[in-house]
Every structure is written in C-alpha cells, then in structure tokens.
Structure prediction request, 151 residues.
Amino acid sequence: MTRTFKKQLHRVGRTEHQKGSANTQTAVNAMIRDHDFGQACISCGKPRKLEAGHFRNSNQGTTRFHPWNLNGQCATCNRYSGGVTYENGVALDRKFGRGTAAFLERLSRKTELWDTRELDQLKMAARMGWRVYAQVYFELGPLHLSARKSA
Ligand SMILES: [Zn+2]
Prediction:
C-alpha cells in the first residue's frame, strides 16, 4: 500500500469533529508561534526558533486548546524531551500565576470536549490573535478560567 493511499484512507475515516479539531489546532499553533515570537523557550529558556508546545499533551482533549497550555517551545524540548514538563510547569506559574500548572493538570483529566461549532469559533478567534482568542475561549469555557483563583 502506498503512503498516499494510506493517507487518503485515514482522511476518509476522520469524523467532522476530528477535522474540526485538527483545523483549530493548526490555527491555534500559528497564533502561539506568532504571540511568543522572539521569546525564549518556555521549558529550557534558550533563545531558539519556537514551535507551539503543549504542557498537557494534545491527547488530553479538555486542555488541548487552552491558551495557557500552549506556549512557544523549542523543537528539542517539544519533540524530543517530552515537553520538559516540570520546567514547563514552573514557567507557566511564573507567566500566568501561581497554581496554573496544577490547575491545567486537573482540568486535563476531565473529558469534556468542544463541539464542532465551538471549534469553529475558536479557530476564527485564533486568527485574530492571542488576546481575542483568550477572551473567546474563556467565554465559551468559563470553568477553564475560574478555578485558577482558588489554586
Ligand atoms: Zn527548549
């Protein structure tokens, strides 16, 4: 079986929700790279070319698109070092407030998912930049914001 054929089979089998999630992830990743451009890697602190790296990985659906969960991360940390999770968490608490890493960890264990309409709204918001995205995101998912205060 050729590689292209396998790819097509995979595409045919994808649900609308999976397609929506993939499109939203593309838009969110681009927004994060743009927002964190010129900053140091969230995990190792080195000034490198940045990718959008997840703190709680993208298999944990609830935090997949969380604006605090994705940050500029170098390829070494993102792809080959498992995200350097501890250092990432320490940096998240510094960047977004104490308790952020623990909050994201708890939130990621829930199983709620965005519906396809919400995914579309998030994708559109991501194209307008981080601030607009965070505002829309927390309006759609207020519980993704409130618990931080009590952490
Ligand atoms: Zn790094």
Remarks:
- The helical segments are 3-13, 16-35, 75-80, 85-96, 100-108, 116-126, 130-140, 143-146.
- The mean pLDDT is 88.
- The first strand starts at residue 50 and ends at 54.
- Residues 16-35 form the longest helix (20 residues).
